[in-house]
Amino acid sequence: MSVWSASTVGNNYYCAHPGSRDGHSNNWCPNFTKHQCVMSGETPIQTDDALHTPAYLSWRKLQLSRAKLKASSKTSALLSGFAMVAMVEVQLNPPSDTRVPPAMLVAFTVCTTLLVAVHMLALMISTCILPNIEAIGNLHSISLVHESPHERLHWYIEVAWAFSTLLGLILFLVEIAILCWVKFYDLSETAAWSACVVLIPVMIIFLAFAIHFYMSLATHKYEVTVTGIKELELLKEQIEKGDHDGRMNNLTLLDQGRVV
Prior knowledge:
Layout: H1 54-89, H2 102-137, H3 154-184, H4 189-259
């Protein structure tokens, strides 16, 4: 298993394309006909045999965990900032001058607090775990993947991802509806109700897409797992057949030795 990294080669070399206009090739790649090596921040290219090793599987999980934590941190920081600005900038009238139901004000306070708390929790998890994963991922060395904590902290990563993309987005949509109600109810009851009417189908579409996405992802993982199990069973049969043929050959040799 060969791993190409910036620590083992220079920073100013590359593999030229075979069909370049000048026909000149400055490549140092030993497997030039199969792939193109570029000194960049991309994941190192592996051979076909190395793609089925536990280390490469762990490396793929590391890259997925890193992508989830990056998306979670950006989304949480953005949406929590919007929620804080909405809470600070909203202008509320005194109780004697407003027709907004007190229950709606309580719902606005609770929803805003939950929204900020959920996104801050996701942001904290991402901020704490991401540097440790980045430190190993930036080395571009699969042999060091066991030093990354992404396997041990897998559930924390999934919690941050769910809080930021699923629960956090749902709370943000609810926050928009409540904010429109609090903001426009004194001016126009129709405007307040129209916000709720518009957001109801949006919420249904959002939930339908989330359920469909997670079901499709679960089905894909199931199919990949079944394929892997079938390959293992086939490999087991081949090994057992090889052992059986070896035993038969040994018995044949013993019988021939006895006859002689």
